[in-house]
Amino acid sequence: MKITAMIIFITTYILLLIFPKIRAYIALLSASIFVFIGIIPAGKCLTFVDWNVILMITGTMGIVSLFIESKMPALLADLLIEKTPNVKWAIIALSLFAGFISAFIDNVATVLMIAPVALNIAKKLKVSPVPSIIAIAVSSNLQGAATLVGDTTSILLGGYGNLDFLDFFFFKNKPGMFWIVQAGAISSIFVLMYIFKDYTKPVKSISRTIVKDYFPTVLLIGMIILLIFVSFIPDKPSITNGMICVVLFYIGLVNSFYKSKDLGIVLKALREIDYYTVLLLAGLFVVVGGITEAGVIEDISKIFVTISKDNIFAIYSLLVWASVFFSAFIDNIPYVATMLPVTTGIAKILNIDPYILYFGLLSGATLGGNLTPIGASANITALGILRKNGYEVSNREFMKIGVPFTLTAVTVGYILIWFIWR
Fold it and tell me: Which residues form the Citrate transporter-like domain (predicted)?
């Protein structure tokens, strides 16, 4: 049974790499096979799905779609640009702003919000928008690991490691992932300053975006406050965070319909939810549950321990840099979903606290996507926007910014996580 489960799992992963456009269906089919051949009892199938994660992703995506529609992010970017003296600092300011937004909003959504601002500035100044939009994409990916709601991988870790919103700031009386990521962000500023050192053309003021509906902004802030509040409640239901996100999204839909009397606005917000990712995750939860039931996860964990010869630093280093490498070429969602139980297995074998491995995994897998144009959805989205505007970006052009940015941020995080959590 264990060999069968391993064959199904490896085949699933190969198919996920070969056919990225139908990954959700591949994951669901694989999950069905695990149930059909009896590795997972049919009645136990849905218990492997982390419904808190599913609900959080769905609700957050919905609230973000309303937030984008309100044009508040565009206004904030306009106000930021007014304070910058030249193109270099405009690009850096936009990158930092994209990072800040991305700590609370999906990376792809962040790029969709901020990239048009960069395009507008580039057109007015008659410069190429390519470097600025690449910088926005990689900064968005960096900050995705900063908070519980910053990225799907963070939500996965939060669900698996039983982490609440505040745990990303301080956990067990130690600095959490938020501060690790900020240290990486600060170090990456120097990389951007060097890359854009010759972009000294002055920036002229641009017209401000007009915001007519502030309610989505209130919803987004309310979601963050409520997630912080419930983190203090002991023994709460496992789907508490997810229900908060979904209920607030529902309130946003009702508000939109009440103000506009237009059902189309509600349907548009519902369409903005990435159901494909939701289905992919649901399938992956069951697949990972299947290989766990069959004992495959335990075997993989033992392989890691054997390779590293029981050396915790070696295992930590292998996990971080392998995650960087793999995430440069494959989507980090299935990778993290698979590796979280593996890191738990490693920690059990070595009888250590798993969180240093969790944070190392999140850091490497989230930031590793910045190495290549195909390593993260935000990168693909950014290059798609540039392509629509007549700019074809080569791998070399992207990696000229992505590689030094990534290696700097990951190295800083790698060192800090070890010294804080060893």
Answer: 14-356
